[in-house]
Amino acid sequence: MQRLALTALLLTIPLAQAATPTILNVATGSSTGTYSIMFKNVGKVCTQSAYLKERGTSGSLENIDLLLGNEVSLAFVQSDVLKAKQQIDGDTRVDNIKALLPLHSEEIHLFAKPPVQKRDLLGRVTTTGVATFANLKGKRVAAWGGSLVTAKVLSAKLGVPYTVLSVKDRDAAFAALRGNQADAVLAVVGQPATWVKDLSGVNLVPVPYAPSLQGIYTSAKLLYPNLGAASVPTVAVQSVLATRDFKTPEKKDLLMKYQKCAMSKLVNLQEDEGMHPKWQEVTFKTWPWPQYK
């Protein structure tokens, strides 16, 4: 009887249930890309990252769609892609996106095969191929992810009409270039990009800075000794870690703590060995998109 009474008493005491932690998905990019590496870098210095789960993607364009579609809670994106969604596509959902952290500048990398020079019987030399941005007129430029938007914006802003060829990924872009289905490849990536340092058989084509690009892009230089030139002029766009304007206390608390930690650990992100060199450009002072508060 005593045993039965004790059992009955125990059954009346509710079992303590462990609270399920809030897990937020973060859209980054390829596993070897700048976004993914920088996300992992923050994870090394901020314990709040334990509640964030990385989701690999094709880049900014997919990241924004995932964020707007409520499939992720944070996304690394180019600010020009955000502006294009808002100003060109007229997507009012973008008004609900906020910048949790303003990040580094991402340089526009424009690749083409080395130009070919031919001499005719009269000794006149003609050059074919893509040596300058203006040479893209009437040609085909392969791009993927957020670079698709950048390629279209640059074409319009710089007044050089060309066809933007949408491809699945980087491998498909360079396959199109090698197979002569594309005349150039445009990629937006923070330098130094490991995969660019491994390239051969292509040139970096200068991208000119013009007043029409002001407010979206800034002047920059590309430095890749393996591609033959000491430095190549280009333009860059600032990236952000974006989120939606969440109001629920649990999510807001987690996001604000992550933001505060990353900002307070900027020196570690810039100086600790193994961190991406792009952290040295980050100031957390320039916000190309409204801040999450």
Automatic annotation (TrEMBL):
Record's keyword annotation contains Transmembrane: no
Entry keyword Plastid: no
Pfam family, one: NMT1_3
Keyword annotations of the record: Signal
Signal peptide: 1-18
Protein name per its UniProtKB record: TRAP transporter substrate-binding protein
Originating species: Deinococcus arboris
Lineage of source species: Bacteria, Thermotogati, Deinococcota, Deinococci, Deinococcales
